[in-house]
Amino acid sequence: MDEEAITYLLLTCFLALIVVLALPSFGTGIFGLIAMALSLLAIVFIVMLNWADFIIFPMVTSMLGVTFQPARNYKIIKSQDAIVKNVSGLYYATGYVTGNLFPYVFKLESRQEEEDQKMLQAPDTWERAIMNIGFPFKFHVLSSGLDIQNVRDELEGKRSYQEFQLSRAQQGAQANEMAITELRRKISVLQTKIDRISQGEKPIATIMYFETTAVDISEKAAVDRLSAQIKSLQVAFSGMDLQLTKVVGRELYTLFTFNFSLPTQLEELAAYFDRQS
Amino acid sequence: MQIKILVLMAFLGVSAVFIALSAALPGGGVMDVVKLILLAIGLLFDVVAFASRFYTYMLVPAIKQRSNNIVLSDEEPYTISPSADSIMHKDGDTFVATVYVAIPLYRSATEMSDNEKMDFSRQVSRLVGVSRDTVRFTSELYVMNKDAYIQTLKDTINSLENEAVALTNKKGQAKELDRTKGKLSMWHSMLDNIEKAQSLELITYAAISAKGTKEFEAVSIAQQRAREVMSGIGSVFGVTPSVVTGQELLKFIEPEYLIPFSTISEQLSKNIQQVM
Question: Is the pTM value of this prediction over 0.90?
Answer without folding.
Answer: no
